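Hey team,

Filing this mostly as a record. A colleague (T.K.) asked me to run one chain through the structure pipeline before their review meeting, and I want the input and output archived in the tracker in case anyone asks later how it was produced. No errors, nothing strange. Just documentation.

Input sequence:
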Amino acid sequence: MKNISLIGSTGSIGENALAVIKAHPEHFRVVGLAAKSNIRKLRRQIEEFHPKMVCVYEESAARILERRLGKAKVKIVTGESGLKEVARISEVDTVLCGAVGAGGLSAIFAAIESGKDVGIANKEPLVMAGDLIMQKAKKRRVRILPIDSEHSAIWQCLHGQNGRAHIEVKRLILTASGGPFLGKKKDELTNITPAEAIKHPRWRMGKKISVDSATLMNKGLEIKEAHHLFNVPIEKIDILIHPEAVIHSMVEFVDGSHMAQLAVNDMKLPIQYALSYPHRFEMNLPKLDFVKIRSLTFDLPDRRTFPCLNLAYEVWKQGGTAPAVLNAANEIAVDRFLNGQLTFLGIPRLIERVLSSHKNKSNPDLEAILEADRWAREKALTL
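Output structure:
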């Protein structure tokens, strides 16, 4: 039995994780939940899973939840300190972080310092502070479990490498569906609306990650994730456009062999693998029908049309506080685009302007990373 704390329980990752836990009550138990402000959904989760503690990040929402729960036996905490408290619950074995953006960073560090394994579903923590996260995890002898589908795919391909992956891997290949604007050129993206950008051709996601998919920034962020998770240099991580989205990622080994992970598109699969690792449990998902698929196609990403990918590669090579700045500037740029304050093509331009104003700091500690994040957000709001 694994005891789980779930950060971001009311989002899509959180709901999928709870579906996995519900399907295997003999293996998993919910001990802690954390959400930003969706108390209606959180209340239903409390009533179904009976956690020991919940965090509602916004204090006003927490007070409303307290009144609605009445005499329900659950401790309610709030804010940043509340997130950390949920991550540190003594009987918890694994903390799963599915919070949007950089929101779960403090909980991840709290979990690692408390000796918990951590499943990371959101890209931003490893982008901002991947070196620190992996160093602390190694020191505390805890595992960082990939949940992003592409990184879960690579993890599964590397299973059994016995610590030799960094020697035997020639390159990692992250696949990308191409998003809603696959095949379009820059002059066709001039008047893109938020509604068009979040309309993914294959699956429904949150607005922020949908826009990142449309700009290909999500692939830029995933490169940095893969670098930290698998100890592979940036220059040995490539992107391939794969519109069918059947192959979730691949590994090329030094002998020329390739290994790929194929599955239906359902986030419950990588979530369950992270929670059940090193075992596999049964899962009631549709099977791949290779006869219906018929063909798998691949292409190189169009970096001229989607410059966010180039920006990411350049920043990852710089290191220091630049990754935190890129991540923060992108979050603000996407938010401004969704609110009608910025054009679609203005997203990479704003990120580039913020980066050009930043004085990079090498080997930053967490305080410096958070300060760079704060500065970049303010800067991106003023340009």
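Quick notes for T.K.: Residues 162-264+296-382 form a domain with the Rna Polymerase Sigma Factor; Chain: A fold (CATH 1.10.1740.10). The longest strand covers residues 28-35.
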